Amino acid sequence: MKDNFYQIIKTHREKYPKMEAADYGKLIFQSEFGPNHLIAEKQSVVSYIKQEYAAVSENSSPKVPEWIGGELCRFPLSAITSDRAAGLLAELFILTAETHRGTTEGLTAKIKQLKELGIDGMEEWLKGWEQQGYPSVHHSRAYRWAYQPHYRLLKREYAGYVPALLEIDKLTEQKKNVIIGIDGRCGSGKTRFAELIRTLFSCNVIHMDDFYLPPEKRKENWMDIPGGNMDFTRLRLEVLEPLQSKETAVYRPYCCEKGSIEKGRSMPFHLLTVVEGSYSHHPSLGVPYDLKIFMTCEEEERKKRLREREGSYFAMFQKRWMPMEENYFQCCAIAENSDLQIDTRACLKIAF
Length: 352
What we know:
By secondary structure, this protein is α/β, with parallel strands linked by helices.
């Protein structure tokens, strides 16, 4: 943690030379505790962000999301383009506030690092802050005058999703029946992103895992066929066509443990439908997607996630499923034909 946070302080110090002791205090307080001290009634948060967004100037900082440590970044209000977008940012801010937790021990460790840097006036300021019980901190007048800061704290992964979320928000404003597909490499975060969309929008989420073909119905060479393990016909007839007609769908999910099709489940129509999972962009599915998103992540990070998820099954997963997916991506040009690409590991790096 020390080296990473030293780098964060160094980066901010170089980028914002007008920083004073209070601004360093605000940086470490935000990086540890996030915005959970600012939780308020949702509508008031939305209204305040919209008002602040209207006041953002060309000189406002930051210009791009800035990592401040841990899971958090400062997301610039200048990156949004409408009142609706400001409302979406407010919801992400509230989600961050509700789920992020810091510790006094973490704050104390960062204070120790600050002391070691020998910043002018830091020791005296920290003593006064300690006597007050380490309350939340405001930017100094010099910092506000020089940089006109307008930002909100978000989880870093949320910052990486914002372009896609804004596009989804725009589509739901323009159309009464929106279908998006989230395809991509295993372990890249497709299901996680789909669940975030479900949290922010009223929608159906369809998981491709529910539409495997039972083993006895697969062709002999199914592993050589891109999507040879998928029942695209069942997905199209039972789910997508009814929802496209604004009707309730009744579908039969596949159970991997039993290797068989389960009883029917009801899925009422929503204005937004999200199809997530590998092979969701397969040409055989024939879905007129309003937005196609491809998610990826560097291989080592994906393997780490998959080991945690699959446990003892990881070796088979790596030997069989990962090569099959890569073959599908190449044969069908999945990434190239997507509207947006998200690298979920890039969302978590220092530089945006």
